[in-house]
Amino acid sequence: MRHGRTRFLIGALTAPLLLYGVFVASPYVQAFYLAFTDWNGLSGQARNVGFDNFTSLWSDTAFLAALRNNGLMLLVVPVATIALALFFAAMLTMGRAATSGVRGSGVYRIVYFFPQLLSVAILGVLFQFVYTPKNGLLNGVLEALGLGGLARAWLAEPAWALPAVIAVMIWAAVGFYVVLFAAAMESIPRDVLEAARLDGAGRAATFRRITLPFVWDTVQVAYVYLGILALDGFALVQIMTVGPGGPDNATEVIGLTLYRSAFTYGEFGYASAMGVTLFFITLALTALALRATRRERVESA
Amino acid sequence: MTVTPDDHSIHTTRRTLLHGATAAGTVGLLGGCVTAGGGDEPEAAGPVTDQNPLGVPEDADLEVVMFDGGYGDEYTRHAADLYQGLHPEAEVDHQGIQRVAETLQPRFVAGDPPDVVDNSGAARLDLAALSSSDQLHDLAELLDAPSLDEPEVSVRDTLMPGVVEDGTLDGRVGFLNFSTVAWGIWYSTALFADHGWTYPATWDDMLSLCEEIRQAGIAPWTWQGKYPEYMMDPIQSMAAKAGGLELVEAVDNLEPDAWKNDAMLTAADAIARLVAAGHIMDGSEALSHTEAQNAWCNGEAAFIPCGSWLEGEQQEVTPDGFDMAMGPVPALTAADAMPDGAVQVASSESFLVPAQASNPRGGLEYLRCLFSTDVARGFAETAKALPVVRGATEGVDLAPGLGSVAAALDAAGDDVFGFKYRLWYAPLAKAVDDATGELLTGRVDPEQWADRIQTTADEVAADDSIAKHER
Amino acid sequence: MRRHATEPLLHLALLAWAALVTLPLAWAVLSSLKTDAEIFASPWTIPGQLHWENWARAWQEASIGRYLLNTLIVVGGALALVMLLGSLTAYCLARYEFPGNRLVYYALVAGMLFPVFLALVPLFFVVDRLGMLGTYHGLILVYAAYALPFTVFFLHAFFRSLPTAVAEAAFLDGCSHASAFFKVMLPMARPGMVSVGIFNFLGLWNQYLLPLVLNPDPDRYVLAQGLAALAVSQGYRSDFSGLFAGLVIAILPVLVAYVLFQRQIRSGLTAGAVR
Known about the structure:
The structure holds three protein chains of three kinds. Helices cover 71% and strands 0% of the residues of chain A. Chain A is an all-alpha fold. The radius of gyration of chain A is 24 Å and the shape is globular. Chain B is α/β, with parallel strands linked by helices. In chain B, 43% of the residues lie in helices and 13% in strands. Chain B is built from 20 helices and twelve strands. In chain B, strands 1, 2, 3, 6, 7, 8, 9, 10, 11 and 12 form a ten-stranded mixed sheet that branches. A two-stranded antiparallel ribbon of chain B has the order 4-5. In chain B, helix 11 packs antiparallel against helix 12 (262-276) and helix 19 (426-439) runs antiparallel to helix 20 (446-462). The two termini of chain B are 43 Å apart. Chain C is globular.
């Protein structure tokens, strides 16, 4: 059985690792190196500046605002998306033991998936029009519902701009996870659900004791994916918001600060330092999230 | 690990890099470094003749990469056609793009840029950084070359005043702007005639006219709130008119307390009074430039601040008989340092020849074609904007808006001014825009506005890593 | 029982989300058929007549037909490549112990965590030196490389969860390592492949930054670049209806593909979710 094992491994791994090494790893390694220089992105020269770029990050108001906003997005986006998606998925599949799911469940699953089909650029342009104060959809709906008093210039108020961006991220993401979670829930053996119901467990109890542990693996993958999404937000903010990144840094995200430093200010080395910092933050958070969810799985099992 | 700063510039020609990469295979790719590059082969040139004053090599191809935005690309194609006519053996490759920075930056670093670039639009390359990285070909030779229309007149003498100065960075002419832009406040002459309103000469007149306009059920002002720099132009225009060129220079030279100058504070306060009196259309602060301008074109608001490109940008949606016009920003006080008609003017649409272009002489020759009367006249007609070529619009039937801009420039004569801080110090420009957005929503008052900007100006002044300029 | 009392409420919640999702899209479609003046009048105006010429204009200006074809070539090629290489890598890392296994896995997964635009300039050099700038195969390789980390991350867990007994039986039958993978393990992993394939398709379809730098030739533009050009020119020429039309045209092919294949996609996801 060991026959040809090494040859197989070498044959299988060479191409992907070469591809990854050449196109992904080598540019990133260069970016790491650039983080310690004052390269302006255009010149043939760069001076080594040690850790200067990293120390100046902590007095950069835009970067700090970005860190705060991305942090908030990281708290809200994955949790809200997963909670909503779990809720809707459960609604679509629950009661399968007794009946064959909610009426129209197939249609819901098609409709819910729609937003996932829009590219971020389209999403940004579309929602810029949704939020626009005079003839935008949101204020139009509020007025039609007799809630005209709530209408406002959503993206121009510091208190509302970031929530408005976050809402778009959640709006776009929920559908995919509904479909994903619903698929996972449907694969729960019927007899398990049946048994729980016979034990007198209500919907909530069944969900907590059986459904959730069963789909936990999927939730974990979703969490990582959504977390990475929440740390980005660049394209959306750049297209939609005032400034962009405004008003007054209220929607600044790290990607935008980084982009501005690199391309507008010609501080490529400094921008690379931001990227490296973001990399380590993401790395730490991913490790933490995976640990935390793993523990939870043990507890709930 | 030692972190001593050392200067390790690696000068390798592109060719040796390519060789290295093929020879060393993957290792070369992994080890290859973006901060290498830049060859120094001698410039390709052909014989200099009367027909070919710049000595363009006749068989060399020409690659021009042009920003294709508000002004379209008819005029840059027109210039390419002229070039082709003069040099039939050359193959001219004209490309229109939208995001100049991302598309061209790697090519500059690689030492393989195009032969001419129109570096314009929102995603343009930082000209100051290009200059300090020696990426710009000196255009002095072009300026001294005979112009396309009249060989006895040099290109320099066909350009409007200020164009050469605008393009001078680090002591040499690195780029030339193609269009003259004047900033002011726009209104519909038809709407004003209907109501019997006249364009105000002073800010006090403006405020009382605003009251009148509101009574007519129209919002006096709207603005492009998503991009606060649009409102910064009236503020800095009023400040400059009140404080004179001294104030402009103090601001650009990052002098201490330049932003807390009385004239600057009064100008900010003038705009703040517009906000406080409720003269600005609801929700303007969240509108993109096109949204605000469309609302204005629809007659929802009477005034909008903008540069002279407005008419071209709005040509598809402007109602018939709207007759837009640009007025100079009203005088702030009775004792302004500059006369009433003074206008903020700058040139825009920056054309440059990269220092490392493979056919730089062709690049210069292309610019000689571009800055010709024919191309400039076509530009005024298709793009509805003013070219910087003298006399190019003579005899051309200008659209109403463009006509009003030309009239305002005539009236201003030598009383024109322009700020440089936006070009020189991009981080300061961002601080100005952030603060101005807050001022226009009443979340900061003029003093706080000035404080915030001054703090950033002081930081920029103290930061050794930012190259300084002086005027 | 209590569940009967809450039933209508739950239905209402489902309906509300469905409305929330469809409304902006329906509104975009409606706006794409209006004139600019109608768009600016109010979000609720019904177009006086249907202005299909907006669509024609957008189709032409954004060269959507050609860009769509380019996108299909690049995304299709990259998807096939990343699925093959990704599944092989994930399988090897999940089912074989060898020195450096963990290191390779973490190095691959770390690729998900770094912002792409910092790699742009160095990446340009790599692609340029290989002579692949502005070529289909160059873009395909780069797209595949950047989709690899997530593919491996997703499938790694999947291959781990497959029963070991089947593979062992295959080896006893005399299968080589390669045929055990292609004939036995890969078919078993099909559901997982479908799931990650959908993730990848959506990710690659929406890719914007990579082609911006690596694909400078307007003849080879992908759809995202065409749309960006449309959005930018809208910013200078004020053509809102054209922009809406472009958006709708860009959404439609994916939407149609999804509705046609949703059954397969769903069953793929269903099976993929079983661990």
